[in-house]
Amino acid sequence: MVPALQGHCVATAAGLEAGPAARQLAATLQAQHPEAGRAYWALRAWALLVWQPAYASVLAVELDAGVLPLQGLRWLLAPQAADVAGFTVPVAAFPAACPHERRALAAQQIQLLSASLLSAVQASMPLHPKAARRMLADCVLAALLRAQPLTRRANDELLSTGADWLEKLGATGDSGYLAFTAA
């Protein structure tokens, strides 16, 4: 569905926690793109670290697979490429939730992960929370757009679903995705 999305369930922790992953990624970005500046390095590191868990969480909920456990998530880096090669989650930690509760539970987990990830990135360099929240909102709505062919949701329903996700994430109005209507 999304070739670059590489999530794995593992019995033992593999990969880096948020702090070390953010530091290593920011340092690599800084070394590879010294001309870009701190704002680029911080936002790029944030985007690389947040998009896969956000996509996977949204896709799991919207494709009726359940709620992806984000507690204990670790990142697999491709440091030479200044990229994230994937992530791992603990195999035994999948939370049980009724279908009508999944979106709220997933949004809560995304918020918790985002808060710890934001702190980790900010420990290396400044990143404005509003910029981070908007990037996260874009990732969530992009995942919904990616899932639309499989869910066969009409555009109006997709708009409603997107608004619900953003509300649950405390990010209402933070994305330009899905903002356009047919004239």
Walkthrough of the structure:
- The chain has 183 residues and is mainly alpha-helical.
- It has one domain (7-168).
- 55% of the residues lie in helices and 9% in strands.
- It is built from 5 helices and 3 strands.
- The protein has helices at 18-32, 38-62, 102-124, 129-151, 155-168, and strands at residues 7-10, 74-78, 83-90.
- Helix 1 crosses helix 2 (38-62) and helix 4 (129-151) runs antiparallel to helix 5.
- The mean pLDDT is 90.
Q: How would you summarize this macromolecular structure in one to three sentences?
A:
By secondary structure, this protein is mostly helical.
Unreliably modeled segments = none
Give the fraction of residues assigned to helices. 40-55%
- SSE order: EHHEEHHH
Strand order of the largest sheet: 1-3-2
The count of helical stretches stands at: 5
Termini Cα gap: 30 Å
Q: How many β-strand stretches? A: 3
**Biggest sheet character:** 3 strands, mixed
Tell me the overall shape: globular
Q: Provide the gyration radius in Å.
A: 16 Å
Structural class, from secondary structure content? mainly alpha
